[in-house]
């Protein structure tokens, strides 16, 4: 069952086993969105948000920036980095490390106990490559099922 702020209360164990899914169930569609500190592939991932279509569960987690956010990105996503704090629309938000955010996102996807199809408005050109880059940056152990998935 989904819980509000699930990603923020989790105890993170990066050695956890790969989840087992019921392959008899239809895959669930998850819409996701990545917000970044700029438009370059090397810019920080600042937020991962997702929502399941049929079960209406939501996930959102903010990531502590490691460098400044471009003015252009802030105009689009309303995220600002001020005095070491990430702010959304002028209000400070709780942040975690990129590793913790990705682990929480994975845990959120595992709650459905079935395969998830991730879609995004601009998945091929923006969100997808940035999610994959974040996973590679943290050197997370990627399950074989995910490695075999197509990105388009």
From TrEMBL:
Q: Which Gene3D superfamilies match?
A: Ribonuclease H-like superfamily/Ribonuclease H
Q: Which GO terms describe its molecular function?
A: 3'-5' exonuclease activity; nucleic acid binding
The reply on keyword Hydrolase is: yes
Among SUPFAM superfamilies, the record links this protein to: Ribonuclease H-like (SSF53098)
Question: Sorted alphabetically, which keywords does the UniProt record give?
Answer: Exonuclease, Hydrolase, Nuclease
Q: Which InterPro entries match?
A: RNaseH-like_sf, RNaseH_sf
PANTHER family, sorted: DNA POLYMERASE III SUBUNIT EPSILON, PROTEIN NEN2
Descriptive protein name: Exonuclease domain-containing protein
Which organism's genome codes for this protein?
Microctonus aethiopoides
């Amino acid at each position: 069952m989904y819980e509000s702020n699930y990603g923020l209360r989790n105890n993170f164990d990066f050695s956890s086993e790969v989840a087992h899914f019921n392959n008899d169930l239809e895959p669930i569609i998850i819409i996701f969105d990545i917000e970044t500190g700029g438009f370059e592939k090397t810019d920080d991932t600042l937020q991962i948000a997702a929502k399941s279509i049929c079960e209406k569960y939501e996930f959102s987690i903010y990531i502590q920036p490691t460098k400044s956010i471009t003015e252009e990105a802030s105009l689009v996503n309303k995220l600002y980095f001020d005095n070491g704090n990430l702010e959304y629309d002028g209000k400070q938000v709780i942040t975690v490390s990129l590793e913790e955010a990705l682990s929480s996102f994975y845990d959120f996807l595992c709650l459905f106990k079935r395969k998830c199809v991730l879609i995004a408005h601009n998945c091929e050109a923006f969100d997808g490559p940035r999610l994959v880059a974040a996973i590679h940056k943290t050197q997370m152990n990627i399950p074989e099922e995910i490695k075999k998935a197509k990105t388009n």
